[in-house]
Each structure stands twice: as structure tokens, then as C-alpha cells.
Design brief:
single chain; 238 residues; alpha+beta; six-stranded mixed sheet; 17 strands; 42% strand
């Protein structure tokens, strides 16, 4: 004997029939109401629906209406949020920004620069890591004044061998003259050239580099952009 199980889910708005196989159909609130009225019309006059059962079904229908209303409201909120997100970051086009970012890209044996900001004078080291989190090189930047710096990596590992093209990350360690850690931020600096989306979230384009709008630290007009000093990778490491 095969048992057939019918289920109604208020949360999903789905009515399904299971008989070794499962069929799923969309059941809206109008269909639910028609089903309830049909059930009342065809009930056994000698055994009418109990009042408590009828009340429970009405409560279920009321909950269904609320859920449909909530769904519509959420769709409207998402639409508004998406439109606001676009307009909120559009004003950044053409401006210079400083944003948190710890990525490096090696392409054709050339690496993008490692940029960072320190809040006070410090001795700085930059550790570079591959996509597996393994350190490939440490650059000693020496003693630096507070400010923003750009370190040009020669795209070679600690043994002096060229590294493979790909994405790397870096970490800045800064200590003052007393050996106490100093706040350091890994950053990217550049002019916003466009806006793109990934998985529905807006990102700023600095050339071909994507930056999350939530990672922005500073915004400047092009002529008042933050000065960035350059530190050369001499191959020295700890």
C-alpha cells in the first residue's frame, strides 16, 4: 500500500504531493482561499468542520497574507537600497581615494606596489604571502616618518627567484623606537575611474583594480591627493 502525503507550507507558499516522487507547485493566497471555500462547500453536513479547525485555517490564511506582504516589502527595500548604493558612490568618480587593501598582483613578472600608511614614525617590515598564506619574502623598509608609502616589490621570493603570476597579499609590521607596535594600514590609492558590481554589491574601479566602497579611508580631489613616498625593494629581508 502506498501512502500519499500532502503538505502545505505557509513559509514557502508551496503545496506538494509526495507519492514516491515529489511534485511542487506554487500556491498563492487566492488559491488558498478558494481551497478553503471549496472545503466548506463540500463538507459533510452531518459532520461539519469544527469551529476550532475553521479558526485555525483562517489564522493560517492570515499568516499567509502577512508573509506575502512582507515579501513585497522586502523586494521594495532591496530595490531602494540598490538604487541608493549606486547614487551614493557615483559622486566618487574622478576623485582620488585611499582605501584599505592588502592585495598584490603579479603579471608577466611585474608586481603592483604595496601601499601602506603609518600613523607615527616607525621601523617597517613588509611580509608578502602567496595565495596559500605562505610567506614568500620580507622587505625591510627601514625607519620611516608617519605618512603613506608605496613599496615596489621586484616579484622575487626570498631566494631571489621570480614568483609565479597571480594574486598575493602583504602585511605591514611597524614598531616605534621603543619597540612598541604602531598602527599601520595596508592601502590602495588611486583615481576612481568607474563603478562595477559583483554579486549585486557595488565596487569602485581604480583602473582595472576593484575596491569595496566600504573600505574607503580618505577621499580627495585629484589636486589635493595624499602625497605618497616610494620605498625601493632592495632585496633585503629579515
Amino acid at each position: 500500500m502506498t501512502t500519499s502525503i500532502n503538505t502545505w507550507s505557509v513559509n514557502s507558499g508551496v503545496y506538494s504531493n509526495s507519492n514516491n516522487t515529489t511534485n511542487t507547485n506554487s500556491l498563492g493566497q487566492d488559491d488558498f482561499l478558494k481551497l478553503l471555500i471549496t472545503q466548506m462547500k463540500n463538507q459533510d453536513p452531518l459532520s461539519p468542520m469544527e469551529g476550532t479547525d475553521f479558526t485555525a485555517q483562517l489564522a493560517q490564511f492570515s499568516s499567509l497574507e502577512e508573509l506575502f506582504g512582507i515579501g513585497d516589502s522586502l523586494e521594495e527595500m532591496l530595490s531602494v537600497q540598490t538604487n541608493q548604493g549606486t547614487s551614493d558612490i557615483g559622486y566618487l568618480l574622478g576623485k582620488m581615494i585611499v582605501a584599505e587593501d592588502d592585495s598584490l598582483t603579479v603579471n608577466g613578472g611585474l608586481s603592483t606596489s604595496a601601499n601602506f600608511t603609518i600613523e607615527e614614525n616607525a621601523t617597517v617590515q613588509i611580509g608578502i604571502f602567496d595565495s596559500f598564506g605562505m610567506e614568500v619574502k620580507t622587505i625591510n623598509a627601514g625607519s620611516l616618518d608617519a605618512g603613506t608609502y608605496s613599496v615596489g616589490w621586484d616579484a622575487r621570493d626570498s631566494a631571489g627567484s621570480p614568483v609565479a603570476d597571480g594574486t598575493y597579499s602583504y602585511e605591514v609590521t611597524a614598531k616605534n623606537s621603543a619597540g612598541i607596535p604602531v598602527s599601520a594600514y595596508t592601502v590602495v590609492t588611486g583615481e576612481v575611474t568607474g563603478v562595477t558590481y559583483e554579486y549585486g554589491a557595488p565596487y569602485l574601479l581604480l583602473g582595472d583594480r576593484m575596491v569595496s566602497s566600504g573600505s574607503i579611508l580618505e577621499v580627495h580631489m585629484p589636486q589635493t591627493a595624499t602625497d605618497t613616498a616610494t620605498v625601493t625593494d632592495t632585496g633585503a629581508e629579515s
